[in-house]
Design brief:
With about 300 residues, this protein is an alpha/beta fold. The chain has helices at about 5-15, 50-60, 75-90, 105-110, 125-135, 150-165, 180-190, 205-210, 225, 235-245, 250-265, 270-280, and strands spanning about 25, 35-40, 70-75, 95, 115-120, 140, 170-175, 195-200, 245-250, 295-300. It folds into two domains: about 5-50 and about 145-300, Rossmann fold; about 50-140, Rossmann fold (3-Layer(aba) Sandwich). The strands form two sheets. The chain has a six-stranded mixed β-sheet, with helices on both faces. The protein has a four-stranded parallel β-sheet with strand order 5-4-3-6, with helices on both faces.
Length: about 300
């Protein structure tokens, strides 16, 4: 079960291995928006560059890992996180990623010493290859989003953020497979508005909520390596039905503009998926009410968007 109690218990387990990522306050006027209070949770400063590290450590520390080690399929960030956690804990890891993955993420997986396999063009292809490897090797599967421990780990972001910014009215969270928003929504339990943000090119949660169950959706766009798993997880879906206020969709152009705005105003280098939540504000797809206190989760920064050789 993914509850406040189980999330708090998971936090006690993983806390020595993760960063308590900071928050930064800003005003909408800084970005040319309505003057409202903004709080950015900088999860791109997490070990391995994204929130996924929380779920990775929760899996490796709260489950029994066999001698064969662990295996994961990932669009990129989950693979980086599992590789990092496995390296730190001395566990063998094999990571399957699709060819669409960012070169920055592929390189980091190798840097952390995991056995890397490129399989297919999309996350679903890498997942199928990983499942075949699991049957052959006996390694422990670490699912990117549809695993209880993954949800618990990601939910610890909500625990931290409530302590750091207790007066939020609303939190914008990017959605891929839904492990992140599922864990966070379970923590808040409807006490604030949790808004899902998805690219128009991969509307997985929007389609699921309309259908009443997880269903296949498109899996494209500039954030496809982090926000396009084809369908949301079955474990997060009932949480989303109860505790996610709504889903808004953003264009690729809006995501790219949000990346540029975060860099220009805050000097934050976010990957496309990491900037998607802010894109909902910056593009007007989520229009806040006067006086609304809005949190924005910047979920990842594994990108080569800034070239320091120039």
């Amino acid at each position: 079960m993914t509850t406040r109690e189980t999330i708090a218990s998971a936090y006690a387990v993983i806390r020595p291995h993760i960063r308590r990522t900071p928050v930064i306050a800003a005003n909408g006027a800084d970005f040319g928006l309505d003057p409202i209070a903004l709080t950015f949770k900088l999860e791109l400063l997490q070990h391995a560059g994204a929130f996924k590290t929380r779920g990775a450590f929760a899996n490796l520390l709260m489950r029994q890992v066999p001698a064969a080690g662990v295996v994961a399929a990932s669009g990129g960030n989950h693979g980086v996180a599992v590789a990092y956690a496995a390296m730190k804990l001395g566990i063998a890891a094999k990571i399957f990623v699709p060819t669409i993955s960012s070169p920055a993420k592929i390189r980091r997986i190798g840097d952390y010493g995991a056995d890397l396999a490129l399989e297919g063009e999309r996350y679903a292809d890498a997942l199928a290859a990983s499942e075949a490897w699991i049957a052959q090797s006996g390694a422990l599967p670490v699912h990117a989003f549809d695993q209880v421990e993954t949800l618990l780990g990601q939910g610890t972001i909500g625990l931290e953020l409530e302590e750091q910014a207790p007066d939020l009215d609303t939190l914008l969270v990017a959605v891929g497979g839904g492990g992140l928003i599922g864990g966070i929504a379970a923590w808040y339990g409807g006490r604030i508005k949790v808004i899902g943000v998805e690219p128009e090119a991969s509307p997985t949660l929007e389609r699921a909520l309309a259908a009443g169950q997880p269903v296949d959706a498109e899996a494209g766009g500039i954030a496809a390596d982090s926000l396009a798993p084809r369908r949301v997880g079955t474990l997060m879906f009932p949480i989303a039905q109860r505790h996610v206020d709504r889903v808004v969709l953003v264009t690729d152009a809006a995501i790219r503009q949000a990346q540029k705005a975060l860099w220009s105003v805050l000097r934050i280098v976010a990957e496309p998926g990491g900037a998607a939540a802010f894109a909902a504000l910056a593009s007007g797809r989520y229009p806040p009410q006067p006086g609304e206190r809005v949190g924005v989760l910047v979920s990842g920064g594994n990108t080569v968007a800034v070239d320091f050789d120039r």
